[in-house]
Amino acid sequence: MRDGARELVPWRWGLVPSWWKKPLKDVPATVNAHGETVAEKPMFRSAFKRTRCIIPVSGYYEWRTINGAKQPYYFSASGAGVFSIAGLWDEWNDITSGEPLLSWTMIVTEANEFAGRIHDRMPAFLAGDSFERWVDGSASVELLCSAPENLLHVWPVSKRVNRSGTGGHDPTRIDRIAS
Q1: How do residues 108-166 score in pLDDT, each as one tens digit?
Q2: What's the number of domains the chain is made of?
Q3: Which of 45, 93, 119, 152 is found 20 to 30 A from 112 (Cα to Cα)?
């Protein structure tokens, strides 16, 4: 939500806080914020207090090491719908050009038993009835918990997902492969 209205916009993934005083290349990894510490960690606490967002996704990837090789898995909604992930956003002004940059991070939490077979963390999904409380800040970290066990489907996918810079948009990257 920005200026009191919801909007769907593409932003940079990896939060750059408004107070950041170094070049963009010096921002540490901020693609995920841990729900357990998001309210206290200096990199995220200001955005947690004032600029929250909802990230709509049709699925997400996690990797599991099998026989020394990383195998990607794709998680999607059981009903083939869209889920909503708790996130934070901020606007930073580039210290050299002065250009504004909008960025975001997703909040992750401990995985439920189903997702935990692949990875120990998972996105913090929001139920539709919690959207307003999340965005307006009236809810705190109590919303940042593991998803219900029956929310997700998962399957192994091609290792091509590791090469995001090649091939552009390729919907076959989420096709099930033999495991």
Answers
A1: 999 999 999 999 999 999 998 999 999 999 999 999 988 888 889 999 998 888 766 65
A2: 1
A3: 45
Burial (Cβ within 10 Å: 0-12, 13-18, ≥19) of residue 105? buried
> What CATH number corresponds to the domain at position 32?
3.90.1680.10
